[in-house]
């Protein structure tokens, strides 16, 4: 049996990156949340912030471990499966990823030790500092990786010498045209993703009548963030769309399944639903609203933008995936705004925690951010095809000189291993949630007194040797 | 540019040294925590296992980051070498990564699990052992050479799978187990420490035998390496490496006998570094032996300079806070001490 190494390498990368992205998008938001809670704790002195922070730190630890191990895999895949990519654009993309390691990875990985194990060991202020450093690290990591990704989408600050990209202007390369939009869009998405997990956990406890104080704080904080951030995200997304139309018009045409501008017609309709038919270059079963496409993408009633047929067939991205994924992303985004605003309204009327029809379903909203991010990722990554780096390197030309069976074997292994790790992760995170913020009563190890929680604040040697929670 | 000739000569050398430092840091630091995993099945009780794991739990994440810096550094400074070496060692690289996946999540999962704990014990021990083994295979596959045509890997998918690489794999497992055991001598007390001391005394001669085999095998099998070591005046310059190794090994043995707690760990780090320098001497200036040198595979000077500025600025800061965390979690892990 013949395996196509390029296709398999693409599937492998899509699989591993989709798995990986779930964890950083959660931990970037969660690190910021934990740091916020810790700062609130030391400034207000309310113990509930401390309890919630400690509780989410355990969930953070499990998620972060999965993010780290799956991220190391990705960094090596540039070499194993996409070695020509490394060679052709390594001069530019390499340092961006190198700076991620230098400024972000070490910071977060090192201070994580204090964050997870320092509760009984270090003064409160230092612990808060460590949590803030982890949050800074995860965000810096997003900065660099999105810079690298954006460069692949909209390359800048380079010249080609003998078929290899050479940097000419680092600032232009880092702050390439799509980078600010992509960074803002992604970081906001991370915060929203985390907020929905916190919201679902809070709703679960409120619904069950457990931890009334902590769970209400969780819900209140999450609703507040969602009500403000979700509409802001819609605005950022809109700006990002304008930028994409300017720099990657073929991607926008694919997202909109816009094949051609009818001669003499004004404005582009918005396709609400259709089955894109790539073979015949048209949409089947289309439902569209006239002019709305123009209004959204050009902010005018009459302007048009390029249709797919205006691009050579070999330069067109696949249509169906960006088209549908984009609709999933936007649909869930609107749902987020609705949840945020209804929640804020109920909160304002002081009815939130008693409104069962709202709190009940909220227990199940935790995946919403993850699905939205994955859809958005599909839109942007599939929409970039057939290029790996737009105008610089095609995906077909980037693969390693390896045999198909190697990629097939490792792909199968990845599916098995990630399947085990992922189910394990969800299972154990759920177990931590069932245990709740206060945790079960822990029997002290033999020969050691069970210290009250208050001793955890002392940075004395005695506390160092005390059992953890 | 006036300095371009000079820069193009020195920059790759500086980067090769920096890369060597990053990999050495990785081998020493992740070496001891992988070693703990290798020794895991030999722990008698669950309490001892907890103690072993607690001794590295705050550090392993940072330790493993050096692997990303090593791989990332090769990608950044020598993209051509990266694009040749990675496809050549495709399978062992991915096997190693998958082993690290299992072993990394085991830290957290094992802590949360109760009935399924034994599964994560297996994942931790198996993942650590396989990761160490494939790292050794990678080393062997790299030292024995990679077939290159037109600046791309031109060999077969199983070129790396030789008896020499297999022997290197076993050697690295033994080496990591040794450094793991002397780490435990330093960081644990009671039964766990006594056990670790016994393991160290068993492993030290085994590791020396592996070092001896590599030292004989490489010059016999690869004439280019024999030429490096056994021609005058190189012979005299390089003789201190094996001699120092033997002296230090004897010292570690004595320190273990006398009950020293810290010295064996630092002694074994010294042994690792000597072995590492030995390999470096055999290989330099090739990054893809025996065809591509550091100069042939180097990134654009602008890329190397840009990254060097960041490295010079960041590396001391990184080393600073790493040292701080090791200092913070200094001292012994007590029996029954909570993990989180």
Walkthrough of the structure:
The complex is a heterodimer of chains A (469) and B (340). Chain A has one domain. Chain A is built from 14 helices and six strands. Chain A has helices at 5-44, 47-80, 83-117, 124-153, 170-174, 179-208, 212-247, 249-255, 292-298, 320-348, 356-362, 368-384, 404-435, 461-464; strands spanning 158-161, 164-167, 270-277, 282-289, 387-389, 393-394. Chain A has a two-stranded antiparallel ribbon. Chain A has a two-stranded antiparallel ribbon with strand order 3-4. In chain A, strands 5-6 form a two-stranded antiparallel ribbon. Chain B has 340 residues and is mostly helical. Chain B has one domain. Chain B is 78% helix and 3% strand. Chain B contains 14 helices and four strands. The longest helix of chain B has 36 residues, at 4-39. Chains A and B meet through helix 2, helix 3, strand 2 and helix 13 of A and helix 3, helix 4, helix 5, strand 2 and helix 14 of B. Chain B: It is found in: Cell membrane. Chain B: It is a multi-pass membrane protein.
In short:
With 469 residues, chain A is mainly alpha-helical. Chain A has helices at residues 5-44, 47-80, 83-117, 124-153, 170-174, 179-208, 212-247, 249-255, 292-298, 320-348, 356-362, 368-384, 404-435, 461-464; strands spanning 158-161, 164-167, 270-277, 282-289, 387-389, 393-394.
